[in-house]
Amino acid sequence: MINMRQIQADYNAVDFVSFMNEEEKWYFDTHGYIIVRNVLSKKDAEYLIEKFEDWRKIPEKKLPKPLHRNLELSVFQNMHYVEKKYQDLILDSRIMKYVSSLLLHNPRLMFCSMIRQKKNEKKPQARKLKNGEIVFHRDTNGYNYPFEAFTNPLIGYQVVNGIMYSGYINVSITLVDVPGDHGICCIPGSHKCNFNTPTIKTETPYDDYIQSFELSAGDAIVFSPNLLHTTRQWKMNYARYTVFNRYVFGKYIEEGFTNHSFEDHKEKLSDELYELEKMNYMKEKKIVKRLKKLYA
Ligand SMILES: [Fe+2]
């Protein structure tokens, strides 16, 4: 008699310890997002807004590198290289607990950005919309492997034997109070949908389908980019400021983006953050070791 058995890739024996408890896993898997309250104090949120406004006034040539601004001065990137509070926010254990767990404990920072939105300020694509039409999207990173319509392990959301994985993770942190009918909104559960969204006709979309959130300055939403989402019109008299950080699975390939890390400026980052920006090889990152002490 000859025995036949399997020694590797035993799906039923995957030894993975999530930092999320059973309730958190259920909530994220069912909704596609989770809210983390008060990751920044009001004072720190105000400080980051002041910094943003200061940076807007600096002539382009004098801008501290590698800080990057768009032409309208409404979107900034790489602030963590010039302001320590962004480093703390990116590495915040209450956020990283979810990010690490959803990336199979192989997190990598993809980018850190800050967006200002004012009343009546419209994004270019919003002008094309007719009659208050609501258009949702899923985020892609532009690297569609091998075709956009095919399952992309870098982007997709999947669960195997109780282990959740989202190819990358969005974290949106508001620096101002957001009323319940403003700001980011989504269709809960749509991160698992396998069908294209038909044109849905309804008089009351926000009652019937769409979830938006009442948030205080300093609250964060961690969500799967596969979730159908968009932004509701900003009607408040004060500007909306949002920090938007994206994390990606650290063992995957380089996608051709240039903003993963800036070697010329690496001394401006803590060792933990510098490593978080790098692709992950065979070792566990410092941030994951720290989180294990807190949550495992
Ligand atoms: Fe998006």
Please state the average pLDDT score: 90
The strands making up the biggest β-sheet line up spatially as 1-10-7-12-4-3-2
Please report which band the strand proportion falls in: under 5%, 5-15%, 15-25%, 25-35%, 35-45% or over 45%: 15-25%
Structural class designation: alpha+beta
Span between termini: 44 Å
Topology-level CATH name: Jelly Rolls
Quaternary organisation: single chain
Counted by DSSP, the helix tally is 8
H and E order: HEHEEHHEHEEEEHEEEEHH
Q: How many domains, in number, for the residues?
A: 1
- Provide the gyration radius in Å: 20 Å
Helical content (DSSP H or I, runs of 4+): 10-25%
The biggest beta sheet, please? 7 strands, antiparallel
| Principal-axes shape call | globular
Bound molecules: fe (ii) ion
User: From the 3D coordinates, which CATH architecture would you assign?
Assistant: Sandwich
Assigned CATH superfamily: q2cbj1_9rhob like domain
- CATH C-level class: Mainly Beta
Low-confidence stretches: none
Task: Let me know the number of strands.
Answer: 12
Give a concise summary.
The chain has 296 residues and is an alpha+beta fold. It has helices at residues 22-31, 42-57, 84-90, 93-102, 124-127, 205-208, 271-277, 286-295; strands at 33-36, 68-69, 75-77, 107-117, 157-160, 163-166, 168-174, 183-186, 211-212, 220-223, 229-232, 240-249. Bound molecules: fe (ii) ion (FE2).
